C-alpha cells in the first residue's frame, strides 16, 4: 500500500515547530545551569570524601541516578508545589527535574575526571606548599576538564533527549508541539520526520562542538 508524502503541507507549521525547538533549547540551557555547578560541587565533595558532606553527596548522586526522569518531572510539577507551598509552572518544574538529575551524572563525570589525574600531580603541588583546594583549582581541575569534555557532551545529548518528556505536563517543547501538529494535520510521518531532522541537527551540532573542543584542548 502506497503512501502519499506531503511535506509542503507541514511546512506551514514550521514556525510552531521551531518555537518548540527553542523551548527545548531553553530547557537544556536552564537544566545545565543547575547541573554544572551543582555537579561540580558534588563531584569534588564525593571524590575528596569530605566528612558528612561527602556522604550526603553520595546519597544525592545515588538517588537521582537511580530515578526515572519522567517520574521526577511529575513529582516536581504535582508534588513539589504542595511540599513548598508555592505554585510552580511547567517550565520551572521540568527544569528542576532535569537539572537535579543531570547534576548527579555530572558529579560522576567530575569525580572520574579528578580520579584520572595521577597521584604525582597532587604530591608535586603539595611539595610546592599548595593547600588541597588550591591544588584542586589550579592543578587538578584544569587537567581533568580536558578528559571530561567528551563525556560531558554525552550528558548534554541525554538531557536533550529527556526534554521530550516535558510534554507530559504540557510544556510546549518540540516533541509536544509535533504531537499536536500531527494530531491536527493527520500527517504524523511527515511531522516526525521533520522533527527527527531537527533533533539530529541539534545533537550533531553538540557532538561537533565536543570534537572541536577536544582538538583545541589537545593542541595546548
UniProtKB/TrEMBL annotation:
Recite the UniProt keywords alphabetically: Amino-acid transport, Cell membrane, Membrane, Transmembrane, Transmembrane helix, Transport
Q: Domain ABC transmembrane type-1, which positions?
A: 21-210
From the record, give the transmembrane residue ranges.
27-45, 52-80, 86-110, 151-171, 191-213
What membrane topology is given?
Multi-pass membrane protein
* Cell compartments where the protein resides: Cell inner membrane; Cell membrane
The answer to whether the entry has keyword Membrane is yes
The reply to whether Membrane figures as a keyword in the UniProt entry is: yes
The family line of this record is: Belongs to the binding-protein-dependent transport system permease family. HisMQ subfamily.
What is the name listed in the Swiss-Prot or TrEMBL entry for this protein? Amino acid ABC transporter permease
User: Which classification does the entry list for the species?
Assistant: Bacteria, Pseudomonadati, Pseudomonadota, Alphaproteobacteria, Rhodospirillales
